[in-house]
Design brief:
Elements: H1 2-22, E1 36-42, E2 45-55, E3 61-72, E4 80-90, E5 95-104, E6 107-120, E7 124-133, E8 140-151, E9 157-168, E10 172-184, E11 189-199, E12 204-216
Antiparallel strand pairs: 1-2, 1-12, 2-3, 3-4, 4-5, 5-6, 6-7, 7-8, 8-9, 9-10, 10-11, 11-12
Length: 217
Amino acid sequence: MNKGFLSLCFVFLGLFYNAQQDTTNIEKEAFKPPVPVELMVGNEALMFKMVVTKPINNSSFKFYNLLTFESNFIESSASNIFTQTVVFYDLSSNFSLGLGGSYSSFSNLKPIAAVLYSSFNEHRGFLVQPSIVLEKNGAKELFSMYEHSIHLSPKFKGYFRLDAFTSWQSSHSFSYLNTRIGVGTKIGNFGPAINVSFVGEDAIQFYNFGAFFNILI
């Protein structure tokens, strides 16, 4: 756990430093979609999250990658890495279809097909992504996210985000509901965080309370 914790801290600090250096040259470079990076420290576990979305050669195709790493403070509990990579084709400004794969510490690499609806503006964002594992009796999954910010002053804004995920096969497998409520500045957003997981057919609940800090790099 200690090595994983220190590694994540160094990665996050490096990304933060790089983001600050890039802001001095942002007007000189072509526009690149920002990469959200988040670190949460809770009473049960530490969680790192990064999302990359990049257009492919200015076409209707785009590359999407989600990476999460969760390390429990209890030494006997295994850490979990989850990554999902999809190449989407934009049918419109809001709808996309994609093919890709997902991998976690507790499952093999699996091919998936996904549909994405997203809508973002200066103050709020929403997306929903249903997907299916392309195997016999493959799992059905649904991910959704809602983000909202409220202007408070020239230097501060209110920040709220809700992430929800569920995976079903013949019965419920795993779900989570992650909530962030805090304050945003020009540097990033920070505040209290709550992660709730639901595991197995009986949806046994696990809680992780703590604080988060996220930035765009």
